[in-house]
Amino acid sequence: MNIEQIRKEFPILQQEVNGKPLVYFDNAASTQKPKVVIDRVADYYSNEHSNIHRGVHSLSAAATEEYELARKAVQAHFNAKFDHEIVFNKGTTDGINLVANGFAKSFLKEGDEVIVSELEHHSNIVPWQMACEQTGAKLKVIPITDSGEWIMKEFHNLLSDRTKIIAVNHVSNALGTMNPITDVIEAAHSKGIPVLLDGAQAVPHMAVDVQALDCDFYVMSGHKLFGPTGVGVLYGKEEWLNKLPPYQGGGDMIKTVSFEKTTYNELPFKFEAGTPNIAGVIGLKTAIDYVNEIGLGAISDYEQELLEYGTEKLSQIEGLKIYGTAKNKASVISFLLDGIHPYDAGTILDKLGIAVRTGHHCTQPVMTRFGIPGTVRASFAFYNTKEEIDALYEGLLRVKKMFS
Amino acid sequence: MMSINERQDELIEEFSMFDDWMEKYEYIIDMGKDVIGLTEELKSDDYLVRGCQSRVWLIPAQENGILQFQADSDAIITKGIVGMVVRVLNNSSADEILKSDLYFVDKIGLKEHLSPTRSNGLVSMIKKIKTYALAYSAKAI
Ligand SMILES: Cc1ncc(COP(=O)(O)O)c(C=O)c1O
Description:
The structure holds 2 protein chains of 2 kinds. Chain A is an alpha/beta fold. Chain A has 14 helices and 17 strands.
């Protein structure tokens, strides 16, 4: 992997912020876009745009073909069995809401239980809470250890005949923990319980094979995979997507409409009401192609190297405490420095051109668990370098001095 | 007694000594450390101005038509800025506060902290101060 070359392919990385070269360490919130993706979206709008699945004219047919090619690319990337198991939507949040809504409508009733974990992003808590409120089902939570890992014994205790679905993250956005999802899926399936995986933080870092995982649902966001914003993917096993009721009504998701009765379209269109984010979907395909050209294996190896280097380097700073110390982690370092408020640290780092995320990272229960207001989070992508980690290290020494 | 604008101009003058952001922030941090904070008891939800990133507590008081605020924050930079806002607005009448325009934040180069997207509680705090002022001036009538 030639990092120097790769960095040149990301226009935004060339800029300065506050007079300093940008060090972009907020990749867990959203990743930057390579020029090929930006160009693909611009080119689509410049030369190819038209609505899909509707016109007989050439532009519409071509756009439809590109859109459906993207579906095939996503299917191949995640190794789904069928392309109609790939539903395009707005992103992770949208995908979870679709499934939670469907479960509330068709499968959950009073006394049933839904299992999530203490490590979830709010997007994988709130939709289930809403589903529970509507149905009288109960939310059960897998607790975590001090290192930020699920307590598996507790998980097994939570499993019961009342459990209707387990919805957990593959990789934690707040702490970086790579969760033991295969164990969860195996235990769940032995009781016939479906599993939804929130893959938002996993897909940028590793190859995901939904058939090997045997998960029932997998959701992700394009913008965290170097693709456009406002586009994402819901993978669902055919049998589950067939069982779930439609989420939104509208054009494209219907077969026939009359005022007496409407029949729904087949998969995946049943879940794609209205004109979708066509440019986003096409841009996402380019992003996936781009990532695969570099290779997720190489990406993962390099990011682990950055993680190791960063963890070691930051640990040298006296008074710095890392939150999330699981053995298996994605390239995310969440930390606090000597009682310095994350807002203060983040403000000074920003002045130094270093973009980190500060706060609770939409995971308030994790912060409550550790009794802290939030953390500073540095999350690395394959275009980051050890020199940038050195800059963060120097920046933190400066922060420490300013607030001591 | 100085007016709100005189106090703002005084702050702008103080900041004009600094030519780089480091010194400026060091000064704010020092002011943040100097602000006499609230006791833990007073940092209750009753006085909390919600911000997502840092939190601000604000306690109003009024004597003979003159308003006094005490404020605190869990982040030092926010606390320093909050301290300046209070320094500028305290010892004024409700009417003066309602009419005031806090131009000093912009003038000393801290405008970014007043952006609502920063969610540091500062914007909400200033709104809250004006709400209190409005309530006090209504009572006065
Ligand atoms: C683990 C996890 N789940 C869900 C989300 C929500 O993703 P989106 O806002 O793209 O829908 C995020 C994004 O921060 C995340 O990290």
